[in-house]
Amino acid sequence: MLLEVSDLSVIYSAGNKVVRAVNNVSFDLEKGEVLGIIGESGSGKSTLANAIIRAIKPPGKIVSGRVIYKGKDLLEMPYDEFRKIMWKEISYVPQASQNALNPVITVYDSFKYVADSHGFNDEKALREKVSELMKLVGLDPKRVLNMYPFQLSGGMRQRVMIALSMLLDPELIIMDEPTSALDMLNQELILKLIKSINKEMQISIIYITHDILNVAQIADRLFVMYKGYMMEDGKTEDIIKDPLNPYTQLLISSIPPLKGEIKNINVKEDTSYYVSGCPFLSRCDHAFERCKELPSVFLYKNRKVRCWLYEPHGA
Ligand SMILES: Nc1ncnc2c1ncn2[C@@H]1O[C@H](COP(=O)(O)OP(=O)(O)OP(=O)(O)O)[C@@H](O)[C@H]1O
Ligand SMILES: [Mg+2]
User: Fold this and answer.
1) Theoretical Cys-Cys bridge with 77: which of 2, 81, 101, 201, CB 3.0 to 4.6 Å?
2) Whose C-alpha lies nearest to ligand 1, atom 29?
3) Averaged pLDDT for residues 62-90
4) CA–CA dist 187, 181 (Å, integer)
5) What's the pLDDT score for residue 15?
6) Pairing of the two strands 221-226 and 34-38
7) CA-wise closest residue to 31 among 247, 193, 205
């Protein structure tokens, strides 16, 4: 197992208000696997990613959990040791990363900055490596490396960020909404690129998005989140064909058809500021008495699902 996240919880607190952004989240990631983390805005996806890479800042706080990478807890190890793993083994493409490049330095200097800070000082080797990466992501190194971020389109900047995340040959890349700011055509191109990075280089990927259709094209497994809770975790194929959790069912029924009429979907507004119970309770058509209590996670049809409908009976 490459990465094992267990019981991870993160809160943000301001005064007497506490937002439970990530609640007791657990999942495993195998080497070479693509895990899609999917959920609507505010479901805690970026917070989860930030917790894994120790980037939660006040008022945020990790209140429980372990993040075991190759047998060692990233959250427990001394920061110096963790820093050596970051970029070299685990890298990160942040949300809105097309705006994350330093605007006052050239594209090449962004690579050089990351290289320098990890002791990669051989300028000639660096030039070669960067050119190779630029070609891999479909950019012309001669043209692009001397440019400034503002001279690039959004799609080009996103490609640069992906190339940058690969500079030190990581084993795992965490990508937060890597295509959400792009037009459909560029989305498809970036997805294809990510797929090839995964297949050809055996790099594991955690791919975060709110777009289930988008992620279903590349993820081996999907991890569905709602209000900081894991709602369903299983093989992409199984989840798309036969979603178990009513929330996953809603996500899938809301995928617009390629042709024809848009179905009349019944999306209830979230009216609850629930205190306890199932996070999806106020929107769920299947809710019953039991749902006033937070559902446990059940194993059902080769999946993990947080929903009382799948509680085994008569066991
Ligand atoms: N710095 C912060 N301070 C206070 N609350 C925060 C902070 N960052 C996130 N939150 C809250 O934590 C919850 C989860 O936010 P998060 O950004 O992780 O969600 P997300 O799933 O990444 O959403 P999006 O799809 O919009 O990027 C939300 O309720 C959000 O308001
Ligand atoms: Mg986010």
Assistant:
1) 81
2) 42
3) 96
4) 9
5) 87
6) parallel
7) 205
* CB 19 near ligand 1, within 6 Å: yes
106-139 confidence digits (pLDDT tens): 999 999 999 998 989 899 999 999 999 999 888 9
- Domain boundary pick from 247, 269, 291: 269
The CA-atom distances, in angstroms, between 32 and each of 130, 137, 172, 192 are 23, 19, 8, 16
List pLDDT tens digits, range 223-262. 999 999 999 999 999 999 999 999 999 999 887 766 666 5
Domains contained in the chain, number: 2
Is 294 a member of any domain? no
pLDDT of residue 131: 96
Asked if 101 and 233 sit in the same domain, the reply is no
Q: What ligand has the least distance to the C-alpha of 43?
A: 1
Which of 10, 20, 43 maximizes ligand 1 atoms within 8 Å of its Cβ, making it the mutation to test the pocket?
43
Same domain assignment for residues 53 and 147: no
pLDDT of residue 262: 59
Structure tokens of 290? Answer: 């039991």
Spatial CA neighbour of 33 closest among 233, 247, 246: 233
Cβ(21) to ligand 1 under 6 A? yes
